[in-house]
Write a structure and sequence with these properties.
Order of helices and strands: HEEEEEEEEEHE
Largest sheet: 10 strands, antiparallel
CATH class: Mainly Beta
Low-confidence stretches: 19-23, 212-217
Distance between the termini: 28 Å
Number of domains: 1
Number of helices: 2
Strand content: over 45%
Shape: elongated
């Protein structure tokens, strides 16, 4: 499913681009749109979130993550700097789900699996670098930083993985890189884009070994060997301005 959606989006964009490049009429749509100092819009999209684990000591088997497609929705505020640079703010909501499979010996198969269902308030600040407008489309790259607050976080929950609770921190900071194409249609600008998001901070809340395994001073089989857990993901957004 994750491969099919980008494929059809590529075909759709290619068809529009072909029409823009090879159309005999080549009418210029919304010719003065990019001369505005400010512009506004909204976006809809899909996401695929993963975790990257760094270990404190060598670990034979990695912690595995099963990804599912999530959903993004939000608003866009764009400030024109000049013909080639724009600064944009894209606050939105991100819904995502991940299933984490821990290696090792557990009492049951279910005990080795934890689910992370997250709803983020995600706020990126991005610099958009565009080429010169070519007829009715304009490619661009973008990059920047972002912050998200996890509304589903159970950071302060006293229960941990030994009680079936996988805990994550409330706040996450990222850097983001992406690319896309602006298509100037008759009444509005349509922009498909793809972007990678990479967390900078550790998001894992460790298990409380003192309360659970203090008899033999054994570290948690879930979080004991994790030095850092950081989100990485892909956004596929459709923006309308």
């Amino acid at each position: 499913m994750r491969k099919i959606i980008p494929f059809f989006l590529f075909l759709f964009c290619a068809q529009i681009g072909h029409a823009q490049l090879f159309s005999k009429e080549r009418l210029t749509n919304i010719e003065n749109f990019d001369k505005q100092r400010w512009s506004w819009g909204f976006f809809l999209g899909l996401n695929s979130y993963d975790f990257k684990f760094d270990y404190a000591d060598y670990q034979e088997n990695d912690i595995l993550v099963n990804q599912t497609l999530g959903f993004n929705v939000g608003l866009l505020g764009d400030m024109r700097i000049n013909d080639y640079f724009n600064l944009r703010l894209e606050p939105g909501l991100v819904f995502t789900q991940r299933e984490i499979l821990f290696p090792g010996e557990f009492a049951s198969e279910q005990a080795a699996i934890r689910e992370s269902n997250s709803t983020y308030i995600h706020v990126p600040l991005l610099l958009k670098v565009s080429t010169k407008r070519l007829n009715n489309f304009k490619p661009f790259i973008m990059g920047g930083v972002s912050y998200s607050y996890n509304l589903s976080s159970n950071q302060d929950n006293p229960d941990d993985n030994f009680d079936g609770q996988f805990r994550m921190k409330n706040n996450t900071y990222y850097y983001e890189l992406g690319l896309g194409i602006d298509f100037y249609l008759y009444y509005f600008k349509f922009t498909p884009s793809i972007r990678g998001v990479f967390a900078l901070n550790d998001e894992l809340v460790r298990d409380d070994n003192t309360d659970n395994l203090n008899i033999n001073n054994i570290s948690s089989p879930y979080t004991g060997n994790v030095d850092k857990m950081a989100t990485r993901g892909i956004f596929l957004n459709l923006t309308f301005q």
